[in-house]
Amino acid sequence: MNMGRVVLASGNAGKLRELGELLAPLGLDLRPQSEWRTPEADENGLSFVENALIKARHAAAHTGLPAIADDSGLVVPALGGEPGIHSARFSREGTDAANNARLLTEMNTLGGEQRAAHFYCAMVMMRHPRDPAPVISTGQWHGRILMAPRGDGGFGYDPLFLVPGENCTSAELPVATKNRLSHRGQAVAGLLAALRRAADDGD
Ligand code: IMP
Hints:
The protein is α/β, with parallel strands linked by helices and 203 residues long. The chain has a single domain, classed as Maf protein (Alpha-Beta Complex), CATH 3.90.950. The chain has helices at 13-22, 48-63, 96-106, 175-181, 183-200, and strands spanning 4-8, 28-32, 67-75, 116-126, 135-145, 161-163, 168-169. Helix 4 (175-181) crosses helix 5 (183-200). Bound molecules: inosinic acid. Inosinic acid binds next to strand 3. Residues 71-74, 87-88, 99, 119, 154-158, 170, 182 line the site of inosinic acid (IMP).
């Protein structure tokens, strides 16, 4: 099975390596959109899925290649879904430390079930910018938000995200364990399965 060259709508080298390895069985030659000097897409969707579609469509239009994009973040139902699609820039500074501090402030009166949260990841593969049937895969990872950070692995909100069953935060998990459990790991597995089915069906 060889699906040829595909552009990844992200400049993140870590994501490129991780996705490249996971999607290797499909014979994909995954390239970062920076190879085509693709400008940033205007992520004006209201949901992770919409923003992933916008990014993939933008990269496919700019490069003329099939495109893969993802969009992810933390959802706290007690905050009406925030930080949600604003996860990367929840605070004015937009650093992980400032975003975590803002999250703790917003949640300081919340206890018990109200501290429930989940990470969400949407992954999309679009064959061309007008593809009417893009492949869409999503993953969710449920946990709770602690009162103070713990651990220094991972990134983003990991030090505040208590993983049920592991009794530690996602910043304290070995990388391989996080990749197996996480929203992104689940979404990538789903995308891989969907692409395999599509290839087998001759789509
Ligand atoms: P992006 O989709 O990679 O741009 O992620 C958006 C934001 O969501 C990041 O900047 C983080 O704040 C948050 N986020 C997404 N995935 C994770 C994760 O696995 N751990 C912690 N934070 C995450």
